[in-house]
Amino acid sequence: MLTVTTVNVNGLRAAAKKGFLPWLGGTAADVVCLQEVRAEPGELTAPVREPDGWHTVHAPADTKGRAGVAVYTRREPEGVRVGFGSAEFDGSGRYLEVDLPGVTVASLYLPSGEVGTERQEEKERFMGEFLPYLKELRERAAAGGREVLVCGDWNIAHREADIKNWKANRKKSGFLPEERAWLSRVYDEAAYVDVVRKLHPDAEGPYSWWSYRGRAFDNDAGWRIDLLVGTQGLAERAVKAQVERAASYDQRWSDHAPVTAVFGG
């Protein structure tokens, strides 16, 4: 069995003050992928940077206080790689891979974008480089008899079922037709599988991000943008997937909720 969780912590130092460590202490996950860490390892307290019982790898952004990804594993990784061979993005704290027995697990923080701005152009450049890499990664893993799981904040809601207020967001970054088409290519051309959607094909959501504004969380007006995207062999082994939604607004330690999948042997 392998249990993997992904969560955008919206600043790990802030999350640690709100309940991240008790959650980590109670999780059954073998691997935890974090996004938007927004801190250098030296800026984190020791219990957060290197919790007992975990091996941790941090990939902060070159730009202080931005992005940042990390992977926490119960078992020491056999290999670690930061970035995906991109001159522009390898130092941006957006992608990190670790090798475990039989599987490569990655933490991804895809740029969020904003229509009509440079941020959207940056997102498009990232997507343009990342898709060919995903294909290469799958092929390389298959040649070595390995599976791949890319976990993280993909910042794209793929289908209408993945966003509560989809009609009002058709022209917003994260639900643009071209972004959704790109994610379709990840599944069709690159032959990856959305693990949560595979196990919950007809569900509305389950959403993983809710704005702090208004009553989005209370009304479950969310987006499903935190994804575990795996190669087909691994996805076939998925037996359970869930969003660990907080019981109430005041118990949240991020605007995202952890998304967890369990894979059989």
UniProtKB/TrEMBL annotation:
Active site feature: 109, 153 (proton donor/acceptor), 256 (proton acceptor)
Residues involved in Mg(2+) binding: 8, 36, 153, 155, 255-256
PROSITE patterns tied to this protein: AP_NUCLEASE_F1_4
Cofactor (UniProt): Mg(2+); Mn(2+)
Top-rank taxon, per record: Bacteria
Cofactor binding summary note: Probably binds two magnesium or manganese ions per subunit.
Site (Important for catalytic activity): 226
GO MF annotation: an example: double-stranded DNA 3'-5' DNA exonuclease activity
Domain Endonuclease/exonuclease/phosphatase: 6-256
GO annotation terms (biological process): DNA repair
Residues under site feature: Transition state stabilizer: 155
Coiled coil: none
A Pfam family annotated for this UniProt entry: Exo_endo_phos
Site (Interaction with DNA substrate): 256
UniProt keyword terms in alphabetical order: Hydrolase, Magnesium, Manganese, Metal-binding
Family membership: Belongs to the DNA repair enzymes AP/ExoA family.
Protein name per its UniProtKB record: Putative exodeoxyribonuclease III
Native source species: Streptomyces bingchenggensis (strain BCW-1)
